[in-house]
Write a structure and sequence with these properties.
The protein has 306 residues and is mostly helical. The protein has twelve helices and no strands.
Length: 306
């Protein structure tokens, strides 16, 4: 198992290097001069040169890259142009909110997705199967921004049960979590149903039933564990996607998380913030996938030798 973990870590290193190169290149792929864009078209030559010096654009490209990597490793992502505060500090202030929403959405999607998937598999080709699959199809097909506005209209404006914007109390998390987790719920439900139907056709399940074991034991002890392996992969991948998908949800519900912070930085061309937030989200996605691989190896020992 230790060798498996070490191999996965070494496989992640080139990916992290590629991400770092892409994020670093963002500033240099922008049409025109980033320094002029920062200070405005009416700025003097001295102001433009000062901006270039602050961004480090007056140094050779390889020096800029190694400086960027070295500072990122130390946790220094530069300073925000808008607030003049360290980007790392700005991200750390908003990161817990985004993580809470992503984790909440993952728990919501996993619980209800697995529940609907098991119900559909047990009631294969019956009313329960059709109903749960229709629900999962609707959840997968509905865009997050549209679902968020719809939930806001129903539960906030018409019923008055839940708050509309902000994140000041735990109740404020409900609508963003449901909105963000809906698509993942549908996907997990379909994967769980497919996995359960495949496992329920296996010989050892027929043997367990022939021994007279209760159906609940057959479903939840024998079948569900083996059907869980592909679902774990989907859940892990979706968590990374949910972390990145908070951009839309946080914008709809005016949540002060990383996603909304990134959107605001793009609109005002705060390049250090854009670089920092993209780097944090991308690295988080890769590390989550690494963790999923390790969990996958623990659940299925055969994976360790592939």
């Amino acid at each position: 198992m230790l060798r498996f973990i070490i191999n996965r870590i070494f496989q992640v290193i080139p990916v992290l290097l590629g991400i770092t190169i892409l994020v670093f290149s963002m500033l240099h792929l922008i049409p025109g001069d980033p320094a002029r864009t920062m200070v405005g078209i009416e700025a003097s030559a001295e102001q433009i040169e000062q901006a270039r010096e602050e961004l480090g654009l007056n140094r050779p490209l390889h020096e800029q890259f190694f400086s960027f990597v070295g500072n990122a490793i130390k946790g220094d992502l530069g300073e925000s142009i808008r607030t003049s505060l360290p980007v790392t500090e700005e991200i750390l202030n908003r990161l817990p909110i985004t993580i809470n929403i992503a984790i909440g959405a993952t728990i919501f999607a996993t619980f209800f997705g697995m529940l609907f998937g098991i119900i559909a598999a047990i009631n294969h080709n019956k009313f329960g199967d059709g109903l749960t699959m229709v629900i999962s199809l609707l959840s997968v097909s509905t865009p997050s921004y549209f679902l968020g506005l719809l939930l806001m209209l129903v539960f906030s404006l018409h019923l008055g049960w839940l708050p509309t914007i902000g994140i000041s109390t735990p109740i404020h998390y409900i609508l963003p979590i449901v909105t963000l987790g809906a698509q993942a719920m549908g996907l997990i439900a379909r994967m769980t149903r497919s996995g359960m139907l495949d496992v329920l056709r296996q010989d050892y399940i027929r043997t367990a039933r022939a021994k007279g074991l209760p159906e609940r034991v057959v479903i939840y002890i024998h079948a569900f564990k083996n059907a869980l392996i592909p679902v774990v992969t989907v859940v892990g991948l979706r968590f990374g996607g949910l972390l990145a998908g908070t951009v839309l949800v946080e914008s709809v519900f005016a949540v002060p998380g990383i996603g909304r912070f990134m959107v605001e930085a793009v609109l005002i061309r705060d390049y250090p913030v854009v670089q920092g937030t993209v780097l944090v989200v991308a690295v988080s996605f890769v590390l989550i996938n690494l963790l999923v691989d390790i969990i996958y190896g623990l659940l299925d020992p055969r994976v360790r030798y592939t």
